[in-house]
Amino acid sequence: MADLEEIDCCDLHCHSNHSDGTETPARLVQLAKEQGLVGFALTDHDTVSGLPEAARTARELGLHFLSGIEISSKIEGQELHILGYGFDPEHPALLSGMEAQHHAREKRIPAIVAKFNRLGIEISAEQVFAIAGEGSPGRPHVAQAVVAVGACKSVSEVFEKYLHDQGSANVVKDTLTSGEAIDLIHSAGGVAVLAHPTAKPIRSTGGLDALVGKLAYLGLDGLELHHPRATPQNRKRIKKLIRQHGLLASGGSDFHGGNSPGVRLGIGRGTLKVPFSLLRGIEERATNHH
Ligand code: AMP
Ligand code: ZN
Ligand code: FE
Ligand code: FE
User: Fold this and answer.
1) 99-163 belongs to CATH 1.10.150.650
2) pLDDT per residue as tens digits for the range 16-41
3) What would the pLDDT profile of 130-171 be if each residue is shown by its tens digit?
4) CA–centroid distance, residue 122 to ligand 2 (Å)
5) Which of 65, 79, 163, 252 could be disulfide-bonded to 58 (CB atoms 3.0-4.6 Å)?
6) 159 lines ligand 1 (CB under 6 A)
7) The CATH fold of domain 8-89+175-289
8) Cα–Cα distances in Å, from 6 out to 36, 172, 214?
């Protein structure tokens, strides 16, 4: 009898300190190995800079590695995260696109800081950039600065009070459109997957079904099916859309180290299970683009 525990698993959604995670790419691969995973993809926000280190460590530890990224994009005024997999990490168009996203992120930090200052919370852009280090600067780094000056107790408190999408200190960042993000991933030979489709309320006219229809028309290849925030009902809905549009499925923990309390690499909040066969399916589709 097949024991469910013995299915080969992978994690296809993880953040390192090259964006807003706290661990190095090498450490993430080590954690994946310790968790008994056989496949891994690093998906930092708007950057590929952690991929060489992750790929090298995966080779050393005998893990199957897939290049990954989570691109911030917008469609109809709402932000969507598009995961890219199996692309050429040195593709010039992808690199220059991500360079532009990085500049937009850098420009946005002082604007968010100014909003906090107006609220009487004295943080500085320098402080935020120091926290972000070499990584893509983002809201989690601002939130850490707010915690550091004692204005809130935790990063999640900062998000709840000030930094959520409609929060009083949030500044919407300039991004590619979702169609452009999909095209960029394809031109680099990769596969484009919508991240956490049910994690946020969908503001698109017609809701999630209409949104996925539009994205499929724009060339989207897959939907993230397994995610710590996806309930069984969510997954049922996503599966139906996957069947309807002939899409691929992906999944991962969205691990951010200390910036995602309660979430562990590979297993999420304890019950996540991403079959390695999903990595294979994505990889096969990526090869077809070359
Ligand atoms: P940014 O890319 O700068 O817009 O920041 C978005 C990132 O902030 C997401 O990818 C998550 O990693 C993190 N995030 C969003 N909402 C929350 C929240 N409520 N608590 C903690 N982190 C969050
Ligand atoms: Zn993140
Ligand atoms: Fe995301
Ligand atoms: Fe993520």
Assistant:
1) yes
2) 999 999 999 999 999 999 999 999 99
3) 999 988 899 999 999 999 999 999 999 999 999 998 999 999
4) 24
5) 65
6) yes
7) TIM Barrel (3.20.20)
8) 10, 44, 38
